[in-house]
Amino acid sequence: MTDFTSCEVCGIRFGIISWKRFCAKCNRTCCRDCLTGRLKDAGGNYSDFERVKICSDCVVAESTTQSISIHEDLELTGQINRDLRLELKEKILALEKFRTFLLQISTTFGPNSDLFPSSDSVDNGLDDRNCDIGELITKCQDDFENMQDKIRMMRRRYETSISNEESSRSEIDRLNREIEIISTERDSLRTALSHVDDLRHDMEDYKQHYLEVMRDYNDLLVRCRKLELLLRSNHSDRTDLSSVLNESNYQHPRNANRRRFWLFSSCCPRFFL
């Protein structure tokens, strides 16, 4: 069981002179001599925000932790330095290779190369080679600028073609809409023409029927005129006709209808149909 009457660090008993205090880190009971004032911020680190007191054991443990952390940081720094030295060595080797490549370009395309036999010979000093490389780089830059101009021109042509394609697509859509409207009107005209053909056939039928009626009418008119002439030429026949008509009224209705049919059939051709 923990004894709260004495200091847990040095073992001194608490009294009127030596009061009981607590460590801010491990919460053990300590005397005044075993506590050390430290500054602690809101995040748990010691700083200038709030002064707290911790025991000597916690101070030693904290110092040991800080020493270990510093040692680890030193080891990590050494590893970083070694990696940086290795990377720097690789960069230097790459620069040497690039320098060798530039010297080869200068030897190949310089004034003293076989590509320029008519050129005046110059010293093969490092400055001359650097000058040749600079001119070659300038020429490459000019070629690159020309290539950029060509790319810009091709881009403008491409944008123009895209714009023309969009305009053509809009025109095609407009023409398709007009074609749909014309197709609808064509279907309407076909329907109207079909209706007109039906009406024309009906008119032809009506005309044929009208001609037949007129022909029957003319035949009937001729027969009526013949009958009228016949009645005028013979007065006795008129009397006989009157007697026949009167006699038919006193006979059987069916016989009377037959006689009327026989009488009018000679005048109207429609009864023969």
TrEMBL record:
<keyword id="KW-0863">Zinc-finger</keyword>
<dbReference type="InterPro" id="IPR011011">
    <property type="entry name" value="Znf_FYVE_PHD"/>
</dbReference>
<feature type="coiled-coil region">
    <location>
        <begin position="137"/>
        <end position="192"/>
    </location>
</feature>
<keyword id="KW-0862">Zinc</keyword>
<dbReference type="InterPro" id="IPR017455">
    <property type="entry name" value="Znf_FYVE-rel"/>
</dbReference>
<keyword id="KW-0175">Coiled coil</keyword>
<protein>
    <recommendedName>
        <fullName>FYVE-type domain-containing protein</fullName>
    </recommendedName>
</protein>
<dbReference type="GO" id="GO:0008270">
    <property type="term" value="F:zinc ion binding"/>
</dbReference>
<feature type="domain" description="FYVE-type">
    <location>
        <begin position="1"/>
        <end position="63"/>
    </location>
</feature>
<dbReference type="InterPro" id="IPR013083">
    <property type="entry name" value="Znf_RING/FYVE/PHD"/>
</dbReference>
<keyword id="KW-0479">Metal-binding</keyword>
